[in-house]
Amino acid sequence: MSLLRSATRVQPVIRAKLFAAPTTVIARHLSFKPIYTSESTVKGARNGQLTTKTGNLNLNLITPKEFGTQGGQGTNPEELLGGGYAACFGGALAVATKELRLKLGPETTITSLVSIGPKQPKGFQLAVELKVAKSELEGQDYEKAIDLAHQICPFSHALKNIEVKTVKA
Questions:
Q1: Burial tier of 149 (Cβ tally within 10 Å: 0-12, 13-18, 19+)
Q2: Which of 24, 57, 84, 133 suits a disulfide with 52, CB 3.0-4.6 Å?
Q3: How far is CA 88 from CA 44, 61, 67, 109, in A?
Q4: Positions of E strands within 71-123
Q5: Is residue 59 exposed (0-12), middle (13-18) or buried (19+ Cβ within 10 Å)?
């Protein structure tokens, strides 16, 4: 059975214990055929534990002290988003420069700054700044490569409704 087909079928729920809490399985309706699907689980929200199905991540989550907590050892959703976006955008930039027949510097780095703040009238909002350093791209070549990388990068697509700024570092 294809990944897309199995992802869109509602799977029966098997309860391990007689008194286990009911589990809701929602059918996924995707507009594309996935190449890869990751699975991450968080128990305890911002002050909990994040694990992945592959076992490659097992992280403590801690709310930053700027939220009025004690802080502590661990990461947070903003750091995880920033790291994922920087990695993804770096890959997209490599593809973009290749497509444009430009040379991307081997020491290119992408640094992300993810900010969270209040949204009016209620809730929170995000803003992202990507700093591209040591790319060896200048002027129009830099602008064209950055624009094309944003068109390629799935994180840029997913975050299109938040403020994203890309600057040369």
A1: buried
A2: 57
A3: 27, 22, 28, 12
A4: 109-118
A5: middle
CA distance 140 to 109: 19
Q: Judge whether residue 168 has pLDDT over 70.
A: yes
Two tokens at 139? 């002027």
Model pLDDT for residues 141-161, shown as the tens digit of each residue: 999 999 999 999 999 999 998
Using CA atoms, how far residue 73 sits from 36, 56, 76, in Å, is 31, 19, 10
| Distance separating alpha carbons of residues 165 and 129, to the nearest angstrom | 5
Can you read off the two tokens belonging to residue 13? 């729920």
How far apart CA 46 and CA 94 sit, in angstroms, is 33
